[in-house]
């Protein structure tokens, strides 16, 4: 997906009303509804709530709840888990942005899928690939003919 396609999908995603009720988020993450309300009260998560309607959570919030809860299960306090989740989100945003900027397609090298991240030199003779294997990802620079 190139940058233009990514931006188009992001715009589309914002227009589509993909929301879950508090019970759905609780069932999907294992976090109780009372905990979700508490987290929202503390400002750790947000919901949309119109007059006379139940809370509705975005898929982004669902993922945030899952990540926070995962850190809590690892032994972190709620405050520390929220901070780690925020750092995780920043890292993922940087990875996503850099991959969208560099992504040139998927090829095959030695029978494995290889993510083409484009030229690495000014003369455009060497291409950087991430070769995805079963147990690891290798970095490979391939000279172009």
From TrEMBL:
Keywords: DNA-binding, Repressor, Transcription, Transcription regulation. InterPro entries: DNA-bd_dom_put_sf, MerR-type_HTH_dom, MerR_fam. PROSITE patterns: HTH_MERR_2. GO terms for molecular function: DNA binding; DNA-binding transcription factor activity. SMART domains: HTH_MERR. Residues 19-88 form the HTH merR-type domain. Gene3D superfamilies: 1.10.1660.10. This is MerR family transcriptional regulator. It comes from Secundilactobacillus mixtipabuli. The gene is merR_3.
């Amino acid at each position: 997906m190139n940058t233009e396609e990514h931006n188009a999908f992001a715009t589309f995603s914002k227009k589509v009303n993909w929301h879950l009720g508090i019970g759905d988020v609780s069932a999907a993450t294992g976090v109780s509804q009372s905990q979700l309300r508490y987290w929202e009260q503390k400002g750790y998560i947000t919901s949309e709530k119109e007059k006379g309607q139940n809370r509705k959570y975005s898929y982004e919030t669902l993922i945030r709840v899952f990540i926070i809860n995962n850190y809590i299960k690892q032994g972190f306090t709620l405050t520390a888990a929220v901070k780690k989740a925020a750092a995780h989100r920043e890292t993922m945003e940087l990875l996503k942005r850099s991959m969208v900027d560099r992504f040139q397609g998927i090829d095959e090298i030695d029978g494995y899928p290889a993510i083409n991240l484009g030229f690495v030199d000014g003369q455009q003779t060497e291409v950087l690939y991430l070769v995805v294997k079963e147990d690891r990802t290798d970095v490979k620079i391939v000279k172009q003919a």
